[in-house]
Specification:
binds S-adenosylmethionine, about 15% strand, Cobalt-precorrin-4 Transmethylase, domain 1, single chain, 5-stranded parallel beta sheet, 5-stranded mixed beta sheet, about 40% helix, Methyltransferase, Cobalt-precorrin-4 Transmethylase, Domain 2, 10 strands
Amino acid sequence: MATTDDENDFHEPHAATAVSPGLWLVATPIGNMGDMTIRAREVLRAAKVVCCEDTRRSGRLLAAIAATPERLMVVNEHTEHDAIDAVADLVANGHVVALISDAGTPAISDPGERLVRALVERSLPVWSAPGPAALIAAVIVSGFPTNRFVFEGFLPRDGAERRERLAEIARERRTCVLYEAPHRIERTLTDLAEACGPNRRVCLSRELTKMHEELWRGTLAEAIEHTRTTEPRGEFVLVLEGAVVISADASDADIVKALSERRSLGLSTRDSVDEVSTVLNVSRKRVYDLATSSAVPGAKGPKKRKT
Ligand code: SAM
């Protein structure tokens, strides 16, 4: 699909006359068929083989755009590795192979990364037909900074890995984008509130581009309440505001302010100290000393040693 560069960077879709051989990562809609791009249709119609997670689901999509590949190949997290040789052979023989996922952009929390890496290692061509991705749709409407952001995908389910990731997110200054399943959203919000503090702001994007699309904005504490009172259904992207102040140079006034906020929300001294030392990246001792001084309203003072 070669195009020539000229002063005008926009090319008419029909300027592309042929789809180059290679593995094409083709984005498909995340809910609204209106988001299927013209190029995605062209590539899928030109593909000899379409790799997909679910042949029934993707079969319906391909039928809707009159794409009739010779073969659908199942590529999911279990089969992706085994598909590498077959895809590489097809591409090496000059064929067009397309990779789509159930929704959105392949290789983004979906199969694709391993196939791409394997083809790159073999110096075989890989192309993209970009389009919908839930993370981009969610971050651009979040209201949080978009000049720099991090994509965390799905958090590890349990254990030390999850705790470490949560601690990293708590310190992260950039806007942070997470995917989550509806039945785990409340737990993830609760864990995030513990790690980042209940006041951290969040934007929940639900059912993006679909009929019941909803954007909800508030603090993590409010988000927990919101998901408790309204049964969370559909697909969610969680966009978290970056840590507002993280500095080894945090002043005593910064620390006292952060502690007072947490105390006024009912957090114990211990939890407030843990959270503030993480978020402000200052030693726990320094935070504890300030928390137990008279600087923080409601401070109880250090525990006295028994004599
Ligand atoms: N590759 C996809 C993409 O480009 O966004 C993501 C696939 S991942 C397996 C599925 C997750 O993406 C869902 O659990 C949800 O977090 C998010 N997602 C996908 N479609 C969505 C939508 N329409 N609204 C909100 N979140 C969506």
